[in-house]
Write a structure and sequence with these properties.
The structure holds two protein chains of two kinds.
Chain A: E1 9-15, E2 23-28, E3 47-50, H1 51-69, E4 75-81, E5 85-87, H2 98-108, H3 123-134, H4 138-147, E6 157-164, H5 169-191, E7 201-210, E8 221-225, E9 230-238, H6 241-254, E10 257-268, E11 276-286, H7 291-296, E12 313-319, E13 331-336, E14 338-339, H8 345-355, E15 360-365, E16 371-380, E17 383-389, H9 415-424, E18 427-429, E19 434-435, E20 441-442, H10 444-455, H11 475-481, H12 488-506, H13 525-541, H14 548-560, H15 565-585, H16 588-611, H17 644-647, H18 653-668, H19 673-676, H20 687-692
Parallel strand pairs in A: 1-4, 1-6, 6-7, 7-9, 10-12
Antiparallel strand pairs in A: 2-3, 4-5, 8-9, 10-11, 11-14, 12-15, 13-17, 15-16, 16-17, 19-20
Chain B: H1 9-24, E1 30-36, H2 47-52, E2 71-80, H3 81-86, H4 89-99, E3 104-109, H5 115-129, E4 133-139, E5 142-149, E6 171-179, H6 180-183, E7 190-196, E8 198-199, E9 205-207, H7 215-226, H8 230-241, E10 243-250, E11 253-261, E12 267-273, E13 290-292, H9 330-344, H10 351-367, H11 371-386, H12 394-411, H13 432-435
Parallel strand pairs in B: 1-2, 2-3, 4-6
Antiparallel strand pairs in B: 4-5, 5-7, 6-10, 7-12, 8-9, 10-11, 11-12
Classes of the chains: A alpha/beta, B alpha+beta.
Region (Disordered) (chain A): 564-603, 616-650
Protein name (chain A): Integrator complex subunit 13 isoform X1
Biased composition (Basic and acidic residues) (chain A): 616-636
Chain lengths: 706, 439
């Protein structure tokens, strides 16, 4: 495939000399009287189009089909020639649409039959056409810039379609010579210019048109090479619909188009809305949409199109869509279409149906009588495409199922969570350029990759590998911590999440820890919380470099989480010792009680501080060996004088001893409920009043997400 | 009578050609392995004869090469190079590769003809043509080793500007996700199975985890089956959510990953390759311009997931979506004139539609330089005016006369009245104030 083939640039040169104002002598009845009003009224005389009108509307039809099927990279330059050349548009993409051309043509108006024929010539237009072919298009410019030292690979070819009324074969020859000469001259000019390109190849299509009933003074001639740069062909065509048909054939040849007729389209009758009849609509599109037919030779060719165009059309049968199911079809090509008869009722019915968002499958009738769905018509954003669906055998028949391969036996993937992840990482177009802080262009797709990188820094794939992602309580933190930057509100939400977890731990809420692969009941509750805190720390740590606010979340977490790492070991040792004692006293229940008591002890300080400024909170000293003696510090201002020295350095022998005694003592009696729940040794009275009013709500970790 | 007991390579190739096309169509790449002893046959039907008559073929007895499908022709000669070079056999076989647009290769035996050397020759073919394509599928930090089957073929975008075939990366990087409804059955170059594989430390493939009859492999595969794999997670979620993952295959080259169901039970992770280029799918726009939704001011999918930023609308509408005027067939013109007439008879109720249709006709007539039509329609409106029944609203007559007059002025072609952008507006009458609004 070549982008810069002859069809990249098409120049229309239409004769605007006085003789083009002559009638094509083909009458159009425009006054079609409605039956019940015909009595006594004589219809107005039919009118006829001028040669000019025929030429213009045929070339507009050529452009309409071309723009429908190739809205980009196929460009038209329209030139009108009389006493001089009038170039109606440029190669720029903005100029490439019918409205622009129609407006420009209206400004030119029909040829003036009273102008001096001696001054007028098609030659002006042909010279201008060669000139314009040397001008670089934005696509050529872009490709040249991109290729740098290989810029010479960008070709400059083009086609001139000239519609005129020639006097004779020798007149035609003169026109060809002129084009030949002009190309030669302009190529010399272009060789010394940066913004002009030499013409490598030019196809001249000369169309001699004349009124119906006249004899043609010019003979047809197939394509002939006049020089290595120039080929020329001559078509002698009667005006009116003959000219239109000719240009329709040419546009198909020039742009490798093919025709498909959709048959059996059910349509409500205009007069009788409750009856429906079947219609056919002929569409044009790139011929690659028929590639399977051409190669396999299994073509089922319907009758050639009604207007007797030269082309064969392939017939495909409409299959009324039954569901609106969204399916991903295996589609090997999609080609824009253009209806041959755009304004006819069947055509507009079909196109409107598609533009409203419905897709239609098309069936290929085969000689054998079997039915094969081979194509689909579907619109995307107001453009209709003919999709080619693969109808031959797949080489991927009977592949092993994904469940039989690597990781296929694992049953607890976080499918729903990853689904949520995918939704958050959906793409959307950013059409306006954005710039980074350093002024360089920001590529949205790179941003998307960055986001995926951030969102997957810690992402366990299976449910049994994670605790925090199975807890509803963690969601507010987990959903924002992956962000590039946090707002103050985000930080606050993260902190709240952490306090909430601390609260859960204090209340000894169960955690959704997986017991897969472990014997018995799984880890003990405090071990569960340790795992949970570790995991949460891993998640937050993965993002601390994102911003200073992420850092603050980590600080809060470290301040609140129960076990600073260096004390883990001591805790384990301590527990072993306790376990022994427990066994000797045979009081397993007591152990649990002690645990909850310790938890509450551990928490009260944390909660207090948490409610104030957490970011500044320091490491909380805490160990089962050394619970804070409840009666030891009945000071009111405890929170204002944080026990700094306690949090750092080794524990003194005295404190170890007294803690031990206190622990032993405390086990001998049941702690007062008030002291147990007290904050800073101050117990709030009549707490139940609050609870009844629903003030205290705590979220439980959810057991499983599915 | 057809002889089936003599060497006739052309018939064999024709046979291959037909079988492949019937079975797979013309788009699926196919490797054709021709095993020969290097003798080309004798007389009619011999390769020498086929090649000698190559230039005298008609459409009906076209030489089967180049194959009408993407292909590689591998010729395995059960003979060593010296033997082949002693005759013109090798030249003829090379011609075959040339005729297949250079796609293919000839293999010969090194040393004497024996089982070991034949095995080594086929070993070379396997290495060349059947090595699996290994890649790493990445989504941020989530990764999986995968085999892509069949091997993705190199692709030439534009033989003139960029003649070097593009090859896909071995790092397949997911860049984001799109709903199936939005990607909307896109055209693809090819599609491939993405199979997770387990690699040992040396990077050799241990297995695809698929249970085999082999005992030893079985245990290794069973272990691989129990290790969580990103492909399985991705596949499951794509299937449940009805989405595809957009994957970057190289510079300006993308594809999509999706779940493909073979049957109710079996489904697989598949990858389809889009055509290389900055904008493979017009309805998605430029790939580089796709970014994360979190960068948008508001979620383009809506808070309730009830809308979508896709498809993108093109700047200009296509002809079938913009009510263009085409008068090539008389019926096109007649329909447009009838529309005006129908509305003219329902004046003043249809004043707005009447003028809309009138202006549409006026614009087209001016662009086509079809001024006679304007005159004709003006005459027609004047006649309509005379035919108005006594019961007609008085405004109807005023509007018809006004419209006819304006068309006549436009038909003079003078710039004052024939401006393309100019529109004929309804005449303000004592009656029009209320009636024109009624439609």
């Amino acid at each position: 495939m070549k982008i810069f083939s002859e069809s990249h640039k098409t120049v229309f040169v239409v004769d605007h000399c006085p003789y083009m104002a002559e009638s094509c002598r083909q009458h159009v009845e425009f006054d079609m009287l409605v039956k019940n009003r015909t009595q006594g009224i004589i219809p107005l005389a039919p009118i006829s189009k001028s040669l000019w009108t025929c030429s213009v509307e045929s070339s507009m039809e050529y452009c309409r089909i071309m723009y429908d099927i190739f809205p980009f990279k196929k460009l038209v330059n329209f030139i009108v020639s009389d006493s001089g050349a009038h170039v109606l548009n440029s190669w720029t993409q903005e100029d490439q649409n019918l409205q622009e051309l129609m407006a420009a043509l209206a400004a030119v108006g029909p040829p003036n039959p009273r102008a001096d024929p001696e001054c007028c010539s098609i030659l002006h237009g042909l010279v201008a056409a060669v000139e314009t072919l040397c001008k670089i298009t934005e696509y050529q410019h872009e490709a040249r810039t991109l290729l740098m030292e290989n810029a010479e690979r960008v070709g400059n070819r083009g086609r001139i379609i000239c519609i005129t009324n020639a006097k004779s074969d020798s007149h035609v020859r003169m026109l060809e010579d002129c084009v030949q000469e002009t190309i030669h001259e302009h190529n010399k000019l272009a060789a010394n210019s940066d913004h002009l390109m030499q013409i490598q190849k030019c196809e001249l299509v000369l169309i001699h048109t004349y009124a119906v009933g006249e004899d043609s003074l010019v003979s047809d001639r197939p394509k002939k090479e006049l020089s290595p740069v120039l080929t020329s062909e001559v078509h002698s065509v009667r005006a009116g619909r003959h000219l239109a048909t000719k240009l329709n054939i040419l546009v198909q040849q020039h742009f490798d188009l093919a025709s498909t007729t959709i048959t059996n389209i059910p349509m409500k009758e205009e007069q009788h809305a409750n009856t429906s009849a079947n219609y056919d609509v002929e569409l044009l599109h790139h011929k690659d949409a028929h590639v399977d037919f051409l190669k396999s030779g299994d073509t089922h060719i319907g009758g050639s199109s009604r207007e007797g165009s030269f082309k064969e059309t392939i017939t495909l049968k409409w299959c009324t869509p039954r569901t609106n199911n969204i399916e991903l079809h295996y589609c090997t090509g999609a080609y824009r279409i253009s209806p041959v008869d755009v304004n006819s009722r069947p055509s507009s019915c079909l196109t409107n149906f598609l533009l409203n968002g419905r897709s239609v499958l098309l069936e290929q009738p085969r000689k054998s009588g079997s039915k094969v769905i081979s194509h689909m018509l579907s619109s995307h954003g107001g453009e209709i495409f003919l999709h080619v669906l693969s109808s031959s055998r797949s080489i991927l028949e009977d592949p092993p199922s994904i469940s039989e391969g690597c990781g296929g036996r694992v049953t607890d993937y976080r499918i729903t969570d990853f689904g949520e992840f995918m939704r958050e990482n959906r793409l959307t177009p950013f059409l306006d350029p954005r710039y980074k802080i350093d002024g360089s262009l920001e590529i949205p797709l790179e941003r998307a990759k960055d986001q995926l990188e951030k969102h997957t820094r810690y992402w366990p794939m299976i449910i049994s590998q994670t605790t925090i992602f199975n807890m509803q309580a963690v969601v507010p933190l987990a959903s924002v911590i992956v962000k590039e930057s946090l707002t103050e509100e985000d930080v606050l939400n993260c902190q709240k999440t952490i306090y909430n977890l601390v609260d859960m731990e204090r209340k000894n809420d169960p955690l959704p820890i997986s017991t897969v692969g472990t014997r018995g009941k799984g880890p003990k509750r405090d071990e569960q919380y340790r795992i949970m805190w570790n995991e949460l720390e891993t998640l937050v740590r993965a993002h601390i470099n994102n911003s200073e606010k992420h850092q603050r979340v980590l600080e809060c977490l470290m301040a609140c989480r129960s076990k600073p790492p260096e004390e883990e070991e001591r805790k384990k040792r301590g527990r072993k010792r306790e376990d022994k004692e427990d066994k000797s006293e045979k009081a397993v229940k007591d152990y649990e009680q002690e645990k909850s008591w310790q938890d509450s002890e551990r928490l009260k300080g944390i909660l207090e501080r948490g409610k104030e400024e957490l970011a500044e909170a320091e490491i909380i000293k805490d160990s089962p060996d050394s619970p804070e003696p409840p009666n030891k510090k009945p000071l009111v201002d405890m929170d204002e004088t944080p026990p700094v020295e306690k949090s750092k350095g080794p524990v003194s022998l005295l404190s170890l001893w007294s803690n031990r005694i206190n622990t032993a003592n405390s086990r001998k009696h049941q702690e007062f409920a008030g002291r147990l729940n007290s904050v800073n040794n101050r117990a709030e009275l009549y707490q139940h009043l609050k609870e009844e009013n629903g003030m205290e709500t705590a979220e439980n970790g959810k057991a499983s997400r599915q | 009578m057809d002889d089936y007991d003599k060497t006739c390579l052309e018939s064999a190739l024709v046979g291959v050609c037909n079988i492949v096309q019937q079975e797979w169509g013309g788009a699926i790449p196919c490797q054709v392995v021709l095993v020969t002893d290097g003798c080309l046959g004798i007389g009619r039907g011999s390769l020498r004869h086929s090649l000698a008559t190559h230039n005298q073929r008609s459409e009906s007895n076209r030489f089967p090469l180049p194959f009408p499908f993407p292909s590689k022709l591998y010729i395995m000669c059960m003979a060593n190079l010296e033997e082949l070079q002693s005759t013109d056999s090798l030249d003829c076989l090379e011609r075959l590769i040339d005729l297949n647009n250079g796609e293919g290769q000839i293999f010969t035996i090194d040393g004497p003809l024996c089982l070991k050397n034949v095995q080594s020759m086929f070993g070379k073919l396997i290495d060349l043509a059947y090595t699996p394509f290994h890649a790493i599928l990445k989504c941020g930090h989530l990764t999986a080793d995968v085999q892509v089957f069949p091997r993705p073929e190199p692709f030439v975008v534009d033989e003139e500007i960029d003649p070097i075939p593009k090859v896909i990366n071995t790092d397949l990087e997911i860049v984001g996700f799109i709903d199936i409804a939005d990607i909307s059955s896109p055209p693809v170059l090819s599609r491939h199975l993405v199979l997770p594989i387990a690699l040992n430390k040396e990077g050799d493939e241990v297995g695809t985890g698929i249970t085999d009859d082999n005992e030893d492999e079985n245990s290794a595969n069973q272990i691989a089956g129990k290790i969580p794999n990103f492909c399985v997670l991705l596949h499951g979620s794509l299937k449940v959510e009805g989405m595809v993952a957009i994957v970057q295959l190289g510079p300006e080259w993308h594809g999509m990953l999706y779940s493909q169901a073979d049957s109710k039970k079996k489904s697989n992770l598949m990858m389809s390759l889009f055509e290389p280029g900055p904008e493979p799918l017009p309805w998605l726009g430029k790939m580089a311009q796709l970014g994360p939704i979190s960068d948008a001011k508001e979620n383009p999918y809506g808070e309730d997931d009830n809308k979508s930023p896709f498809p993108l609308q093109p700047k200009n509408k296509r002809s079938y979506a913009q009510n263009v005027t085409v008068w090539i067939k008389p019926s096109g013109l007649q329909t447009d004139v009838q529309k005006i007439l129908r509305n003219a008879r329902k004046l003043p109720e249809k004043t707005q539609t009447f003028y809309k249709e009138l202006n549409r006709l006026r614009k087209a007539a001016l662009a086509f330089g079809f001024l006679d039509l304007l005159k004709g329609v003006a005459d027609m409106l004047e006649r309509e005016c005379t035919l108005l029944p006594d019961t007609a609203h008085p405004d109807a007559a005023f509007q018809l006369t006004h419209a006819a007059q304006q068309l006549k002025l436009a038909s003079t072609g003078t710039s004052e009245y024939a401006g393309y952008e100019h529109n004929i507006t309804p005449l303000h009458t004592d009656f029009s104030g209320s009636s024109a609004e009624r439609m």
